[in-house]
Amino acid sequence: MPADTADANLKAANGLARLSGILRAEAANGLFWGAGPDEEARLHRLRELAAALLAQIDHRPYEAILAVYRADTGLRTPIPGTELRIDCADGTRLVRRRRLSHTSGTLGQRLETAAAALRTRAPAEPVAIADTDLAGLPCPHTFLLVYELETHLDAAAAAALLEPTEPDLEGDVPSLNPSASGQEPDHGPLAVGPVVRQLLDAAAALAKESLAVSDNFYERERQQRVLSLCDSAVAADVDYPRIDCGDLAADCVATGADAAIFNETGRLLVIRRTDTGQWAVPGGAAEVGEPVGLAAVREAFEETGLDVELTGLSWAFDKRDTKLGDSRMPMIMSFTAAALDPEQPLRLAELEASDARWITREEAGAMDLFRGHELRIPAAFARHRGER
């Protein structure tokens, strides 16, 4: 087989793994939030089709893949992890990548444990964000907070003290400055063979069935995404190789992203949530298949109507480190941002926000803030002002 054909087939297989992961997440998240019996049946069928898609390329049989997918009980988002870059005394740089899980400890605990083992100080902030989806890896979508450490130990001594990189996170995973992490991924059209086309047609039919009968905004939004994904695939002559799509059962610590949008006078935009009546910066769950920075950009647009660009990361906020544990979404990536057009008017999403204000740091202290924002909003002001 010519090298370019083999490369194209591998790219198609990796793309199919990505598509299966997205559809898996759509099914899991729809079931998590709840639906009527007919919609629930469609979501279960969508999950089966997602497993069947992965079975076209993965070395595991369909039944084994479906059993893992059926075990999803929480929200599915990109999975958070860390990439530790350790500069050793002998000039060697070690790199260790591992996911965060509900049982492996919090982000803060991981950094403190690694620093103590290496006899150095824990890093305060990530220097970059790496992303397996942007890298084209077929494993479950994972974003990695990149931290740099220095140690007086040589590489051999340091390596003996650190857990190894998880096998499916090996490889070339480029990283981005946090302010550049809001970019749209460009994977190009997905080439699919006849069997995959049939499976996607079945998924599209489910989406159309749901759109014909559902008046629930979130259900319709979900099924429109599914339909768009199915319709974007391009029929081609593809000979899929068998690949390893990584740790399908990797624990998903659900992640959200928010955008602290500052105007030219240094005021922060907050919205009044319709569910609690409290004030917050715009944000929500990250979606499998999108960089976590892009989730902040998307949520800002959906909730305020503003097109924004990221200016930095104010806090990789693990609620479990702050006694603000949330079993639904423990990890929040809090970005700072600015409107691309300062004159662009606000357009609030009626289901998400009932009011909006541009506030000062002092005004924030007197407001009824949504849980966690009493910590995140001051951190955003500090980042925006260059105080940290």
UniProtKB/TrEMBL annotation:
CDD domains xrefs: NUDIX_Hydrolase
SUPFAM superfamilies, A to Z: Nudix (SSF55811)
The organism of origin for this protein: Glycomyces artemisiae
Residue segments, region Disordered: 166-189
The protein's name in its UniProt record: ADP-ribose pyrophosphatase YjhB (NUDIX family)
InterPro entries: NUDIX_hydrolase-like_dom_sf, NUDIX_hydrolase_CS, NUDIX_hydrolase_dom
Superkingdom of the organism of origin: Bacteria
Pfam families: NUDIX
Residue stretches making up the Nudix hydrolase domain: 252-383
Cofactor(s) listed: Mg(2+)
Key words of the record: Hydrolase
The keyword Hydrolase appears for this protein: yes
A single MF term (Gene Ontology): hydrolase activity
